[in-house]
Automatic annotation (TrEMBL):
This is Response regulator. Residues 4-120 form the Response regulatory domain. The modification 4-aspartylphosphate is found at residue 53. It comes from Dactylosporangium sucinum. Keywords: Phosphoprotein.
Amino acid sequence: MSKTVLVVDDSASVRQVVTIALRGAGYDVIDAVDGQDALRKLDGQRVHLVISDVNMPNMDGITLVGEIRKQAAYRFTPIIMLTTESQEEKKRQAQAAGAKAWVTKPFQPAQMLAAVSKLIAP
């Protein structure tokens, strides 16, 4: 059975690149346009990993990480932040909220897949 990854980014092109890379590596993908959309789509379904942007409208990625961690079903789900942000302060906030890894855009799909496979195997 393949593993499911939730991809959260307000950029359609980024979601597309990430989705293509993940599906090519054998993962199932659910995508969401922002944190609120992501929380609606989680809705108790089995998700093995979350990849989220930091800067998004409606609900940013760091707030999303905190909201995901409040739900028992997703308390230990690994979360990767995929972002243009490289500020140490943002990284600290994301780690404090519960993010496990940080990939900076622009990224190589192979680099992102390496981070994913360290946290979950396909």
